[in-house]
Amino acid sequence: MLTDDERAKRLADLNELIDLIRPAVQADGGDLVLVSADVEEGVVRVELQGSCSSCAISSTTLQAGVERILQDRLEWVTEVVGGVDEEIDWETSAAMGRGGYRPAW
Questions:
Q1: Whose CA is closest to 21, among 54, 42, 52, 43?
Q2: Does residue 28 lie within any of the structural domains?
Q3: Which structural domain range is residue 79 located in?
Q4: Is 101 domain-assigned?
């Protein structure tokens, strides 16, 4: 069981790392939001928002990008659960940024 100080340290480190990742996602018109973190179990929940909601590679961004970075830099992270903001319609989402995917047509 973690002490309150250990829990606070883990959460602070996680927030700092999320803030380090966010500008790369924001550069494409999206955003990365920390939804929740169980610092004892190591499960982190994040959500991609903005243009990421309609991006074809959002799952790759979550798995190959966010999950890899969090697990590489925070030894206590065991699982990263991610999703996309379903509230925004795809046309608005697509208009928010250039995104990482562009159809060939």
A1: 52
A2: yes
A3: 4-90
A4: no
C-alpha angle 52-67-24 in degrees, rounded to nearest 5: 45
The pLDDT tens digits of the residues spanning 46-63 come to: 988 877 766 667 777 777
pTM (global) more than 0.85: no
Describe the strand order of the beta sheet including 30-38 as a list of residue ranges. Answer: 30-38, 43-50, 79-84
Of 76, 78, 84, 81, the residue nearest 12 (C-alpha): 76
Residue 99 located in a structural domain: no
Domain membership of residue 64 (yes or no) is yes
* Total domains present in the chain: 1
The string of DSSP letters for the chain reads: ---HHHHHHHHHHHHHHHHHHHHHHHTTTEEEEEEEEETTTTEEEEEEEEGGGT-TTHHHIIIIIIIHHHHHH-TT--EEEEEE--SS-HHHHHHT---S-----
